[in-house]
Amino acid sequence: MTDLDAFITGLPKAELHLHIEGSLEPELMMALAKRNRVDIPFASVEAIRAAYDFSRLQDFLDIYYAGADVLRSEEDFHDLALAYFDRAAADGVVHAEIFFDPQTHTDRGIPFDVVARGLLAGMDAAAAKHGLSAKLILCFLRHLDEEAAFATLTAAEPWLDRITGVGLDSSEVGHPPDKFARVFAAAGERGLKRVAHAGEEGPPDYVWQALDILNVDRLDHGNRAMEDPALVARLAREQMTLTVCPLSNLKLCVVPDMVSHPIDAMLKAGLRATINSDDPAYFGGYVGDNYRAAVAGRGLSQGDVVTLARNSFLGSFLPEDSIAAQLAAVDAFVAAQ
Q1: DSSP track, 84-153
Q2: Residues 146-202: pLDDT tens digits?
Q3: How far, in Å, CA of 160 to CA of 139, rounded?
């Protein structure tokens, strides 16, 4: 491990773009399939890993939804969450804001309450085990209709004291943010934060829609915003946080290689960019791996790494006093090196 590798691992950081279903490692998938007597189209862990070869977002989503079928009980969701938090803590993550896709489960007949109870139990276990804080963000699947999103928001009502925000994920192209304008407005009326995937595969116009129609508090991905100078200027002026996912961008061919990744250009443009792992079981690495890939591909400095970590707290939905405390911890770590 190089000095910068060790620095990245030890640096306190938050993760703001993590799909908990996307942290389902092949070993856990096989174990849960056996526990729940679920037939999956793979004979071994190696066969699952071999299937993780994508050329586009939809290829990934097809296996993602198939894999999620092994998640059936509260215990399964607890185990999934705690397995992620164990890996995150080893990477220096002290706060995580995780996405979950209730429609992926309710459409299979799994009650919303089973999913919520299991994930929240995993979050509580991580707090006790690692001292790691976490928040839960409910994502609507954008390939489904707005009526289905409203039904999900209604199902979430009993849990809104433990759910911080709503998001928008799944197939981006052909499903613009404005499709969900009313349900995002309803979420805002309930006091929920709003985030949305935009500008991953979709055009810069989707980012404009996320800002002006969904009124997002944070932008997930946002790579293609870099194609529009006026949009870049606005994102910088408003200090809109971007939750960037380098290895995901590589795996899904959003960029051809890490040398072409825009993370350093984002920082130079004054954007509040952060680094995250997205669906780490499928995309080849957790948050530390994503930092290292960005450093290797774009030659980021130690100062850039610190900026990214600071941005992760500034862009979080923690209260202001907690953000200040986390920033002080980052500064103390750096000063001790």
Answers
A1: HHHHHHHTTEEEEEEEE-HHHHHTTT--HHHHHHHHHHHHHHHHHHH--EEEEEEEEETTS-HHHHHHHH
A2: 999 999 999 999 999 999 999 999 989 999 999 999 999 999 999 999 999 999 999
A3: 13
Instruction: Tell me the CA end-to-end span of the chain in Å, nearest whole number.
Output: 16
| Backbone region of residue 175 per phi and psi (left: phi > 0; alpha: psi in -120 to 50; beta: other values) | beta
78 token code pair? 């607890």
DSSP string, 30-89: HHHHHHHT---S-SSHHHHHHH---SSHHHHHHHHHHHHTT--SHHHHHHHHHHHHHHHH
Which amino acid makes up residue 296?
A: A
What are the angstrom distances between the C-alpha of 323 and each of 134, 316, 329? Answer: 13, 8, 10
Residues annotated as catalytic (active site), given as ranges = 200
DSSP state of 250: H
Do the beta carbons of residue 302 and residue 7 sit within 8 Å? yes
Kindly report whether the global pTM for this prediction surpasses the value 0.90: yes
